[in-house]
Amino acid sequence: MTQTETFDDLRDLYQDVILDHGRKPRHAQRLAAFDATAKGDNPMCGDRVEVWVKFDGDRLGRVGFEARGCAISVASADLMAETVQGRGKADTKALFEAFRTLARTGACPDCGQALAEPLERLAPLAGVHEYPSRVKCATLPWHALIAALDGTKEASSE
Amino acid sequence: MNVMTNPAALDIERIRADFPILSQTVRGKKLVFLDSAASAQKPRVVIDAMVNAMETQYANVHRGLHWMSERTTEAYEAARDAAAALMNANDRSEIVITGNSTGSINLLAHSYGRGVLKPGQAVLISGMEHHSNIVPWQMLRDAHGIELRVAPITDAGELDMAAFEALLEDGKVGLVAITHMSNVLGTVTPAERIVSIAHAHGAKVMFDGSQAIVHRKIDVQALGADFYAWTGHKLYGPTGIGILWGRKELLEQMPPFFGGGDMISSVTYEKSTWAAVPHKFEAGTPAILEGIGLKAAIDYVQSIGYDAMAAHEASLTEHALARLSKVPDLRIIGQAQDRGGVISFVLGKAHAHDVATLLDRQGIAVRAGHHCAEPLMHRLGLDSTARASFGVYTTHGEIDALADGLDRVREFFG
Predict the structure, then answer these.
(1) I need a labelling partner for A130 at 20 to 30 A (CA). Which of B63, B194, B268, B330 fits?
(2) pLDDT attached to residue A158
């Protein structure tokens, strides 16, 4: 049996992309210079994330984060940081709403063509919809990011 | 599978057949339920007792003059007798029926805390309490000027007895409120010693027995305790019903907590007088069906017997500690000498939630998180652990499945 076959039953949620980004996140760093920041906290499981944003004009230039949590939350933060780069605020918020639907239901049929490409990049996280208690792990970094964009400093996934 | 240490007194296959849910599959896998410390599964006799009451014999209790009410009152009150016998209470009136352990401890914190303890006195808890035995005392501290003290634990996860005694020495502690068995570490605290030290310093003792009563015969008179709190749903009974046992003379000193029907002797607009204990603490229509279910659960436990249950648990715990210690990178949290079937662990750098989800994917149910014991987690320097816990229906084979499942999780995370 190959390694892949052995773990087929474990891969629906923990796809390679998630394991990879969970283990070796590319954007897991505090930005030295930033324009906005906020913390996210999931009191039920103790996951915590802090997000920093550096704008490039009216777009999100760089996003960095520090996360203390499970592989899902770290991978989600990393994929988020990667995906929102270069997007406007309104666009980022729309993407968050679409991603939340994806995480809760496994799909976002009404999300429209404009979000198809970024949602595709976030699609490896769609498996969390089968684990209601883990949906918040995936959405927590987004709550923190939106709080940073709104200047509210703190977010909770509760 | 270690059949040799499985005591003959406990016929595990017959017991498993008593629990309908154990034949369920989860995510296409045979259910391996190792989360009994959070809430235990229910035997058929408990399910039937509650359904039967609803189908054949149900009305409100303590007030009806009709046949249905009288029969239902008898069935409900039988839970009080069963609980009194289970704990060897001196009298059935010492059994206060509450909603759960949290309800029992809040009742005590409000009633004994505000009615009997005086500002300037202290309540002493330990460093391995569930939030339900921390927060009510914090609320009492802030509202009533009661000091809250915390007796530290050792690195092995045992109560530091020297520090415990030192915290009692100034005589200010009026009440020791402490777990009888940790829901995180599995540590069983030395209850008799705790009582004798506390009493020598003039303090009463309440045990949070939520975990202990599932595994050990509790004799409150032999322990010399003053109060003992536990919950039905961990003892194979329904949710929504718990017990606060208290020595009668102490319960009689305590003012009511909730006001309402059932707890009064007489009511006028000027003044009400209280019913006798335990009813003065039991305002409103009680959890009638849950009481009937709890009675069935206690009868079930008594029919198996604590000797057999404790021996089974000891055998499972020994097997689990041996098997889990062979899983590479796995660290068991808590090494108390006297411990029960609740085992917390961390696996390498994997987060406990990932471990739990990956075990769930294999049909194995464990708890992960801070287990409602955040201060203990801080003491241990951890954010979370995974926890396997055992019930009367747990098999040695299920522990083997856990160990094999953890091996897979480890390989998977590489």
Answers:
(1) B330
(2) 57
Nearest to B351 among A10, A13, A70 (CB): A70
How high is the pLDDT of residue B34? 98
Listed as ranges, residues in chain B with pLDDT below 50 are 1-8
Global ipTM: 0.88
How far B351 CA lies from chain A's nearest CA (Å)?
Answer: 5
Residue A10 sits at the chain B interface (C-beta within 8 Å): yes
Active-site residue, from B203, B218, B304, B372:
B372
Chain A CB contacts of B354 under 8 Å are 14, 70-72
pLDDT at site A61: 95
- Model confidence at A156, pLDDT cuts 50, 70, 90, reads confident
Q: Is A19 within 8 Å of chain B by CB?
A: yes
Contacts of residue A23 in chain B, CB cutoff 8 Å? 413
B372 is catalytic: yes
Test mutation, A21, A70, A72, A76, chain B, max B CBs within 10 A: A70
CA distance B211 to chain A (A): 22
Q: For residue B15, give its domain range.
A: 7-43+305-413
Q: Which of A135, A133, A153 is nearest to A144 (CA)?
A: A153
Q: Are B104 and B319 in contact (CB under 8 A)?
A: no
- CA dist., res. A78 & res. A72, Å (int): 10
pLDDT digits (tens, 9 = 90+) for A8-24: 778 888 989 999 999 99
Q: Does A7 touch chain B (CB under 8 A)?
A: yes
Same domain, B313 and B289: no
Is domain A3-156 in CATH 3.40.1360.10, yes or no? no
Q: What pLDDT score was predicted for residue B1?
A: 41
β-bridge mates for residue B350, sequence order: B347
pLDDT at B295: 98
Q: Is residue B2 part of a domain?
A: no
Residue extents of the structural domains in chain A: 3-156
Q: Which of B351, B357, B413 sits opposite A69 (nearest CB)?
A: B351
Q: Who contacts B158 (Cβ-Cβ below 8 Å, separation ≥6)?
A: B187, B189, B336, B337
Task: List, for residues B325-353, the tens digit of each pLDDT value.
Answer: 999 999 999 999 999 999 999 999 899 99
Strands B367-369, B385-389: pairing kind: antiparallel
Chain A residues touching residue B374 (CB < 8 angstroms)? 46
Specify burial of residue B320 (Cβ count, 10 A radius: 0-12, 13-18, 19+): buried
The C-alpha atoms of residue A25 and residue A14 are separated, in whole angstroms, by 15
Is it the case that residue A139 has pLDDT exceeding 50?
A: yes
